[in-house]
Amino acid sequence: MTALLRYHSGLFLRSQRWLAPLLLYAALVAVGVRPGDPVLGSLGIAAAGLLPVAAWSARICLTQEAAAARAVTAAAGGRARAHLAALLTGAGWPVLAGAVAVGAVTATGDLAGAGGPAAPLAGLLATTACAFTGAAVGALASRPFVTATGRSVAGLLLGSLLALVTTGSPAKHAVTALVAAEGAARPPWAPCAAAVLLAAVTAAVSCRAGARRE
Fold first, then answer.
1. Which of 59, 106, 117, 173 is 20 to 30 A off residue 152, Cα-Cα?
2. Which residues contact 47 (CB under 8 A, 6 or more apart)?
3. At 70, is the pLDDT very low, low, confident or very high (cuts 50, 70, 90)?
4. What is the per-residue pLDDT for 214?
5. For the segment 148-164, what is each residue's pLDDT rounded down to a tens digit?
6. Which pLDDT does position 75 carry in this prediction?
């Protein structure tokens, strides 16, 4: 699995297709967060902006190989393992970008009444929840479920929107816990765990479907 992760990460970085989602995330954070704003609300905005970026990143990693290269990778490492490695790569890099954003927002935001170290912890948990929820959206809107580019992009947009506004979504609960917080931060452990579970179930279904259909 380590070799597959390195392979997909190398493809992702060398292709420079990561630039578009990264620039989108940087723009969302720059527009939505201002230095001196209450840190919890700013962390919530940064976490919410990561969800569509993670969905996009997951789709990039699932579709960046040509069909012939994908067949070779599947033969070498197993079709399900190769698919899982692509999904993990698509989720992992957004988590890293979110962690950097949490550090920047915490350093420039107003920490008054936010509970000190609890604020960045809450931000990291919220960004992780949004990243994994976004990865689940990206998995469902990409191969093997959706192969047409137009439908896939429409699915990413609609799925990301629903994940941010639908009651019961781990991402919505994680973001709300920060944006609507009164007083000290309460790290959203439960939404983060739910998002990881959702991503794991989605990945299992996606890998099984990929092994059967492709």
1. 173
2. 98, 123, 126, 127, 129, 130, 171, 174, 175, 178
3. confident
4. 59
5. 999 999 999 999 999 99
6. 79
> Are the C-beta atoms of 34 and 2 separated by less than 8 Å?
no
| Cβ proximity of 98 and 127 under 8 Å | yes
Distance CA 167, CA 45 (A): 18
Rounded Cα gap, residues 178 and 199, in angstroms: 22
The whole-angstrom separation of Cα 125 and Cα 195 is 10
| Nearest partner of 97 among 19, 164, 175, 173, judged by Cα | 19
What are the DSSP E strand ranges found in 46-89? Answer: none
Domain positions in the chain are 2-213
Give the per-residue pLDDT at 157: 94
pLDDT single digits (tens) 182-201: 667 788 999 999 999 999 99
What lies within 8 Å, CB to CB, of 91 at 6+ separation is: 54, 57, 58, 131, 132, 134, 135, 199
Q: Predicted confidence band at 115 (pLDDT cuts at 50, 70, 90)? A: low
The long-range contacts involving 81-86, CB below 8 angstroms and separated by at least 24 positions, are 81/1, 81/4, 82/4, 83/206, 83/207, 83/210, 83/211, 84/1, 84/203, 84/207, 85/1, 85/4, 85/5, 85/7, 85/8, 86/8, 86/61, 86/62
Secondary structure tally for the chain: helices H, strands E = 9, 0
